Structures are given as structure tokens and as C-alpha cells.
Amino acid sequence: MNTSSHIALVTGGARGIGAAICRALADCGHRVVVTDIAAQGASALAKEIGGESVAMDVTSANSVSQASEQIAREIGAPTIVVNNAGWDNLMPFLETDEEFQNKVIAINYTGPVRVCRAFLPGMIAAGGGRIINIASDAGRIGSALEAIYSGTKGGLIAFSKTLAREFARNQITVNCVCPGITNTPLIKEITANNELAGRGIAAIERNVPLGRMGQPEDIAGAVVYLASEAASYVTGQTLSVSGGISMAG
Ligand SMILES: NC(=O)c1ccc[n+]([C@@H]2O[C@H](COP(=O)([O-])OP(=O)(O)OC[C@H]3O[C@@H](n4cnc5c(N)ncnc54)[C@H](O)[C@@H]3O)[C@@H](O)[C@H]2O)c1
Questions:
Q1: Does 246 reside within a domain?
Q2: Containing domain of residue 216, as a range?
Q3: pLDDT tens for residues 87-122?
Q4: Measuring from atom 38 of ligand 1, which residue has the nearest CA?
Q5: Which residue's CA is the nearest one to ligand 1's atom 2?
Q6: 238: how many CB neighbours lie within 10 A of its CB?
Q7: Number of structural domains the chain divides into
Q8: Domain assignment of residue 229, yes or no
Q9: Which residues face 177 on adjacent strands?
Q10: Ligand 1 centroid distance, CA of 74 (Å)
Q11: Which residue out of 36, 140, 149, 213 has the highest number of ligand 1 atoms within 8 Å of its CB and is therefore the one to mutate?
């Protein structure tokens, strides 16, 4: 990590927090690879920021392996990897069924595990790197109506700390950013037809000490820091970007 420009891969980069991360990393001079299951959105954003785009569904082993081979062949080894793709819908735990549970686990937990497994060897060969996993405050402190999601994000935090220990010797740092409620298309979709979720999210928003909902750019700022030279001695950490709604003890 001793040059200023890196190949930076972002999952779920087509919209929301991922798109803001892609724009911010491109602004830092990195060559950004926008990956997403939504290939058209990824390609449009890549054009806008002068980066590359590759279709990649993090829930599919084949898709991740094909994308990683294509990236290695056509672009090079990413030394910054941001696991941002994620999904949820809010509902009481007893209303969740196995299909929903498996989908949440596949996108939010197995996906990042698969992506780390695919891109860590390239980082090791390059002599270092940064993995930044977008978890959630739900994974630190729990969140009503998000039992499965909270479990996946808590798992992602523990997984990240373990990778941080295992790959420190390779000069690879692994950290988590935990957004609070952030204004993205996902939040709009969750609240559109779900009154209970809408009320819950509005209540959280009213209680944010800094007095507003987070914006995708707020999260991107933390990612830029963790990807920067300034953070080269920071690993295994979990940074909440939530306007103060949760504060680490
Ligand atoms: N918005 C919030 O309030 C909030 C709060 C805490 C954590 N987060 C986390 O931030 C991250 C981004 O969330 P967002 O609100 O921007 O969501 P979003 O739905 O607006 O954007 C997510 C992107 O991920 C992509 N994606 C979904 N499934 C995918 C898959 N299988 N493979 C590849 N890409 C896939 C989508 O196409 C989309 O472009 C997620 O990990 C989410 O859990 C969001």
C-alpha cells in the first residue's frame, strides 16, 4: 500500500452507499471497479467516474469466480476491496421464513466471505491491501425487526476481526464501517409498503443526536479514511457512522 493509486473494487456499487463509495474512491485517484448484480447501473456509474464495471452477484460462487478471473485478466489485482452489497426487509422474527433467512444470510454474510476468499490471494501477492466491510449498527447493538440481518452483520464484524488478525502479517488491514439509518433506495423500498418499518425508522431518525438521517456520502467518507495511508495502522476496528445514535463503550 505504498503507492497513492490503487485498484479499488466495490460490491453493490451501482446505487446507494456503494455508489457514493465508488465516487469518493475515484475522487481520491483510485481506479474503481464498480461491481453489482445490476450490471447496467454498475456500467453507467463506471462511465460517470471513469472506472470499470463488472457484473457480479455475491450470492453466486460461479459469478464471483468468473468476475474475479475477468478482473485479474483485464484490470489487475484490487488492493482495496469494499464489501458493500447488502439487503434486508424489516419484519418480526416470527414472521421470517427459511427462504427469507437464507437470502439475507447469502447476501450479507456468505457474499463478503466469498469475495474475501476470491480477492485476498491477489492482495497477498501485491504485498498488502485494505478490506473494508460495510456492516451495520444492527450488528453491534441489535435492531428490532432485523433479527437475521443483525446476526449477519454481527457475524461480518467477527469475521473481519479474525481476517484482520490472520492477514496483518501480509500488511492487509480489515475494518468494518457500521452505518446507522442512511438515506438510500433500500430504505425507501423497505418503508414504501411497510408501515411498521416506516414508523420504526422515523423513530430512530428523530433520536439521532446530530439531528438528521445519514447520507451515503457520510459513509463514503469513513471508507476513504480506512482506505487511505492515514489508516495504515488501523485494523480490526468497527467504526459507526450513525450521527451518534450508537456510541461504543
Ligand atoms: N441504508 C441504510 O440505512 C443502511 C444501514 C446500515 C447498513 N447498511 C448497509 O449498507 C450497504 C449498502 O446499503 P444501501 O442502503 O446502499 O442499499 P441499496 O439497496 O440502496 O444498494 C445496494 C446495492 O447492492 C446491490 N446488490 C444487492 N444484492 C446484490 C448481490 N447479490 N450481489 C451484488 N450486488 C447486490 C444492489 O443492486 C444495489 O445496487 C448494505 O450492506 C447495507 O446492509 C445500510
A1: no
A2: 7-241
A3: 999 999 999 999 999 999 999 999 999 999 999 999
A4: 12
A5: 182
A6: 18
A7: 1
A8: yes
A9: 134, 239
A10: 26
A11: 36
CATH number of the domain encompassing residue 20: 3.40.50.720
pTM summary value = 0.98
Average predicted confidence (pLDDT) for the chain: 96
| Catalytic residue status for 149 | yes
Judge contact between 42 and 60, C-beta under 8 A: no
pLDDT at 217 over 60: yes
Say yes or no: CB of residue 12 within 6 Å of ligand 1. yes
- Distance from the alpha carbon of residue 145 to the mean position of ligand 1, in angstroms: 17
Q: 208 lies in a domain? A: yes
End-to-end Cα distance, the chain: 31
Q: If you measure from the C-alpha of residue 18 to the centroid of ligand 1, how many angstroms do you get, rounded to a whole number?
A: 7
Instruction: Summarize pLDDT for 219-246 with one digit per residue, the tens.
Output: 999 999 999 999 999 999 999 999 999 9
Ligand 1 contact, 14 CB (< 6 A):
yes
Please state the φ and ψ torsions of residue 27, each to the nearest 5 degrees: -60, -30
Distance 25 CA to ligand 1 centre (A): 17
Would you say the CB of residue 107 lies under 6 angstroms from ligand 1?
A: yes
* Catalytic residue chosen out of the listed positions 109, 149, 225, 233: 149
Pure H helices in 28-167: 39-49, 61-74, 98-105, 111-126, 138-141, 147-167
- Report percent pLDDT > 70 for the chain: 98
- Residue 142: count other Cβ atoms within 10 Å of its Cβ: 12
Q: Which atom of ligand 1 is nearest to the CA of 134?
A: 41
Query: To which H or E segment does residue 187 belong?
Result: helix 185-192
Flag whether 73 is in a domain: yes
Q: What is the pLDDT of residues 161-174, one digit of tens each?
A: 999 999 999 999 99
Banded model confidence at residue 34, pLDDT cuts 50, 70, 90: very high
